[in-house]
DNA sequence: GTGGTCTAGACCACG
DNA sequence: GTGGTCTAGACCACC
């Protein structure tokens, strides 16, 4: 599932084990970290985004609630949710934390399978090579 | 939780999000892939392994049942479960499949966060460097 | 034990030696093979079906899990289990496989008892004649 | 697993769901029904048969115990087990009972799968045709 | 509400 | 002793 909404580009995979609300929250976080979304900008409304992603509005609401708790979003009554002041450094830190954590888990698992670091390195390169991106 | 049982060394982390039965199954799979367990060898009995890992026998049984469905284990009535004939290639393939899949997910997520391949590569190296292992 | 649930008609005999979860799984398989259940349709929820058949929810869950492993069902988080895309051909094949296998076993046993094919044929006709059905 | 022992020819399949002891008992029953074994004849000793079939002696013993209960075998102290007087009619009846029962189960299952009697008939012919035998 | 995981403990069949 | 099935009931995440 992918969709473009405002300045955001969402890509949801409901089969990869990561909760949908978590994926939504992360993608907002990442967009702020990149500078794609700036403090004060409106994010898509709960209902609109839910419609566009064909997911339950509760799921979007939960993602936004979590972002509020992290001081990344704040609600403007009568207007919607906007990127909070000071969100960018939080998001950058958060982005690195999330990615490092997930990379660490994968490495742990590979080590546990008795692969050597070198073999893990090779697998990683091989997968990275398959992907298109900068 | 770690334990040594027969030729196997188990390490279970009940807090990392991966179901315990899945961790047990993977570790058997990995051990066969490594050659630590060979076709015809008995694996620890459901009850014994459950006792040693301090988990419920049903959880071990579920892991073993899944391995049966994958033609990695077969049950010998009244005797126990043994590594099936032809299990090793299955396990090797399975090991690579599991690790590649998980690596792929992490890379996807990192790319989506607008990191460049080079940046992802650096993060990976940094995390791999932190680990001890061969 | 019989029950009607949604488009399904279940008939469970807990004394015939075939595990209850297996009977549940087969009946879903057969219903898909017949076209009574179509891709995308929800099957009865684990809890509801368990209540209606007066069995334990875990037993139903096990049947459904097995069907998931066979790519016949897929779970929609928070929604329920639906018939997977492409389930029908799988179910048709599976139905024939199951029945042929069981017929084959019976014939083997009869041959081993030194009955001739003709005698086996007669026994079969005689039993088939006793049954009511189309 | 197959073996020839005295006048008996045993064929054991430990994967077809029928308990091994039951398969042993049935094959003795069938041999008596055919006249291959006659009243007063010795059957192979528990230990010898167990060795030849590579199964547990307890399993053979259990089969023989069941046959004793059915008045098909009787033990001669210091000699072994022999086919009892009057065993043949018992075995003939028993053979038909067993086969009819198993055929009935299979037909029931096929009917439950919504196959018509005609379709079941065809499946049966097809499987019978595959077998070699008289 | 949904499914998923896990525990605890029973009973059975088999060797 | 072994695995296999089933029950009862808890807790969690998700929608």
Helix/strand-derived category of chain A reads: mainly alpha
Mean pLDDT of chain A equals 85
Oligomer: homotetramer
Low-confidence stretches of chain A: none
Radius of gyration of chain A: 17 Å
In CATH, the topology of the largest domain in chain A is named Arc Repressor Mutant, subunit A
Form type of chain A: elongated
Euclidean distance between termini CA atoms of chain A: 22 Å
General description of the model:
The structure is a homotetramer of 134-residue chains. The two termini of chain A are 22 Å apart. Chain A is built from five helices and four strands. A two-stranded antiparallel sheet of chain A has the order 1-2. In chain A, strands 3-4 form a two-stranded antiparallel ribbon. Chain A folds into two domains: 2-87, Orthogonal Bundle (Arc Repressor Mutant, subunit A); 90-130. Chain A is mainly α. In chain A, a hairpin with a 3-residue loop joins strand 3 and strand 4 (80-83). Chain A is elongated. The A-B interface holds A 11, 16-17, 26-27, 30, 33-34, 36, 95-96, 98-100, 102-117, 120-121, 123-124, 126-128, 130-131, 133-134 and B 11, 16-17, 26-27, 30, 33-34, 36, 95-96, 98-100, 102-117, 120-121, 123-124, 126-128, 130-131, 133-134. Chain B binds a DNA duplex (15 and 15 nucleotides) through residues 14, 19-21, 45-47, 55-59, 61-62, 64-65, 75-81.
């Amino acid at each position: 599932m992918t969709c473009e909404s405002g300045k955001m580009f969402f890509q949801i995979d409901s089969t990869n084990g990561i909760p949908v609300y978590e994926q939504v929250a992360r993608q907002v976080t990442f967009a702020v970290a990149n500078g794609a979304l700036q403090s004060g900008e409106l994010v898509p409304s709960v209902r609109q985004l839910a419609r566009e992603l064909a997911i339950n509005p509760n799921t979007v609401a939960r993602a936004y609630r979590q972002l509020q708790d992290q001081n990344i979003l704040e609600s403007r009554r009568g207007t919607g949710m906007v990127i909070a002041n000071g969100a960018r450094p939080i998001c950058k830190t958060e982005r690195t934390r999330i990615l490092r954590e997930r990379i660490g888990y994968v490495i742990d698992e590979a080590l546990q399978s008795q692969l050597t670091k070198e073999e893990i390195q090779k697998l990683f390169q091989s997968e990275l090579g398959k992907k298109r991106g900068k």
